[in-house]
Design the sequence.
């Protein structure tokens, strides 16, 4: 059976569980198997450039051992994206790239909900590298560590507050959740803010499914 491996580059199982729930709508009787896996050798969260760079060897090992037909990197830093594409020769989809590209189809000005202030410069570099500056409204942190995202009430309150700032102050008309650990919050946030909100894990899995089903 065709398989898509969705890798959580950090070691927090609650994040992997949220990723697995986000994958559920893509599991079809005649579709590929979608398996979520945790990098147990990683830090609790990918919260700095050092964290992102440090997990790349782990991800290369997981990709080599897994034998999957496509790989999804479920971290908004897209760690190791290009080296894994080079290593495997298979579809490798990063959730940041997929989330941002999906957002461009849903609005004119994209806003990102980051976890921490130190995540913002990393996101902004990526936006510049992708050439999206003209359609980028802003990137604001919710100021929660990855492990704190498991508190749904607190997380939703911070997402709503930050999302309103991106909408009302920065002019965003579509938002992207900037961490795989926010996967359960998309629907409620979109309804409360009255605007599209992209859950990047789902955006990436959708692209991976399309790639393997058309025999990329």
Sequence:
């Amino acid at each position: 059976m065709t398989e898509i491996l969705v890798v959580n580059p950090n070691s927090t199982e609650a994040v992997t569980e949220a990723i697995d729930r986000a994958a559920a709508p893509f599991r079809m009787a005649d579709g590929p198997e979608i398996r979520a896996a945790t990098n147990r050798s990683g830090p609790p969260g990918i919260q700095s450039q050092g964290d992102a760079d440090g997990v790349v060897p782990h991800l290369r090992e997981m990709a080599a051992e897994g034998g999957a037909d496509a790989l999804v990197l479920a971290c908004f830093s897209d760690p190791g994206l290009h080296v894994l594409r080079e290593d495997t020769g298979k579809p490798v989809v990063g959730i940041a790239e997929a989330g941002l590209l999906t957002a461009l189809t849903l609005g004119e000005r994209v806003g990102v909900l980051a976890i921490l202030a130190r995540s913002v410069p990393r996101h902004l570099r990526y936006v510049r590298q992708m050439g999206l500056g003209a359609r980028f409204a802003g990137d604001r942190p919710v100021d929660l560590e990855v492990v704190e995202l498991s508190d749904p009430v607190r997380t939703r309150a911070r997402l709503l507050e930050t999302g309103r700032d991106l909408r009302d102050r920065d002019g965003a008309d579509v938002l992207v959740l900037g961490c795989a650990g926010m996967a359960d919050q998309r629907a409620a946030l979109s309804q409360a803010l009255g605007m599209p909100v992209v859950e990047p894990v789902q955006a990436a899995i959708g692209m991976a499914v399309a790639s393997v089903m058309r025999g990329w």
